[in-house]
Design goal:
With 182 residues, the protein is mainly α. 87% of the residues lie in helices and 0% in strands.
Length: 182
């Protein structure tokens, strides 16, 4: 007769634990987006500061290192988003607003990297444009995976808007990758 109350207690604790983990995972996604926002801004600033000619190898490698760190953060964000499961309407709206806020900076960085290609080509190390190309491909893959994970967790009424943002950012990678592929 004591089995039922114990079973109920165990199940209640398990359910509460699952609920707390889900909220923590959403908090992790929000924290990931904050980190990604900072890293995208830093990358864009480094790209904008890089000259079209006369740049330094250190500055170019700094851009590469920033891109690599951003890929790592995007991958972490993807893992956290998958673990979070479905967002509530409020969570999804807040997350979508955060992503919308960094979209112009992402587009600026991609446009800037195309404009700065002559600066990378003029450096004495010949493989730098190929390194930038690899960074762009890695960023595109990581960005798409992160966006897909966020879309999968979004409430149905936000999916169309989130998909449009993903598609716009993904499309912006095409001319940047094409510029460094030739």
């Amino acid at each position: 007769m004591m089995v039922f109350p114990r079973l109920f207690t165990v199940l209640s604790v398990a359910a509460l634990s699952v609920a707390l983990v889900a909220k923590r995972d959403v908090a992790a996604v929000v924290a990931d987006i904050a980190t990604i926002t900072t890293q995208v801004t830093n990358l864009d600033n480094a790209i904008q500061a890089f000259p079209v000619s006369g740049g330094s190898l250190a500055a170019a490698l700094g851009i590469h290192n920033s891109a690599t760190a951003l890929v790592t953060s995007l991958n972490t964000g993807t893992t956290d988003a998958v673990a979070a499961g479905p967002f509530t309407e409020e969570e999804g709206t807040a997350i979508l607003a955060s992503v919308e806020a960094i979209e112009p900076t992402i587009l600026s960085a991609l446009e800037g990297i195309v404009a700065k290609k002559p600066g990378f080509q003029s450096l004495p190390i010949g493989g730098l444009p190929a390194l930038i190309l690899q960074d762009l491909r890695n960023l595109q893959t990581a960005t798409t995976a992160f966006a897909d994970a966020l879309i999968a967790d979004s409430p149905e009424d936000l999916v169309e808007r989130a998909t449009a943002i993903r598609d716009g950012i993904t499309a912006a990678f095409v001319p940047a990758i094409a510029a460094y592929s030739s």
